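Feature request, filed as a ticket because there's no other form

It would be nice if the structure record came with a short human-readable summary line next to the tokens. Right now we just get the raw output. Example of a typical job, pasted below so the devs can see what we mean:
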Amino acid sequence: MISDAIEIGRRLKLFKEIVGHGRWLPWLDEQFGWTDRTALNFMRVYTLATKSEKFSDLALEDLAVPLSSMYALAAPQTPSEAVAEILEKVRNGKRFTIAEVRDTIARHKGLDDFDIDYDSEDDDWFTRYLVAKQLVPNGGNDDIQTPGYLANQIVKHFLPLIDVKNDLVLEPCAGKGAFVRAFKASGIKNIITCEIKNGRDFFDYDRRVDWIITNPPFSQMREFLKHSYEIANNVVFLTFTAHVLGMRARLQDMNDAKWGMKELLCVPTPSKPWPQSGFQVCAAHLRNGWRSAKVTFTAI
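Raw output as currently delivered:
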């Protein structure tokens, strides 16, 4: 019952003040066997109920929102617009499923197309939404250019593996040309580019290439990976490690395509507008047919 959760949250806030910060976690464990996160969920629901005018004329015992979804609504990172939309519809008689609450939050975060696996064995779906929020910059704007110095460093690192005279290298998101300039400076002869803003869509390109080296759009990462598996022998994506290693569906895609992770070249996070999320940025080298369990970790 939502009303019970609100009352539990009220009492927890009171006892947290009484117990004090240094004793709070041991007290939670001794009394309930709870973590701080469990208590936070209840306290945030209480805070939402007391601060939101949308609660004022709702019968809490009949609130048609699953309790687990109330935790998500009460989280500080949830857009107020999502909370308002859901509670307004509840007031008008709408009954929400957990999936509908998730989708509403995702839509207001600009994550409609982000490939989150709701049926994952990991039931912490809201954490995945927060991860997605931090990995998709500027509300979904993927026009985040690669600094020239970083493109040069990445190409120089992988150059010993590239046959500069014969290999065909594709830059599918040419943007302002940082990687293309790095290819040319490194002596790579056969270069192909795509750039959707110039009318050449990567997903329409079907010629076989030896290498794809790019900074792909984060919100289309899975689609870019899957198409790359179909046309390339090697892929180097400048991205966050979580984009290639942190999601089960993407690892399954890689395995199904009989590709493997060969190397993660860890690099410092470029300055804004790159997301300053705390996640490790890397140039991830994936190879067709690479079935070794060994992944090399290197750093610039």
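Something like this underneath would help us a lot:
The first strand starts at residue 168 and ends at 171.
DSSP finds twelve helices and seven strands in the chain.
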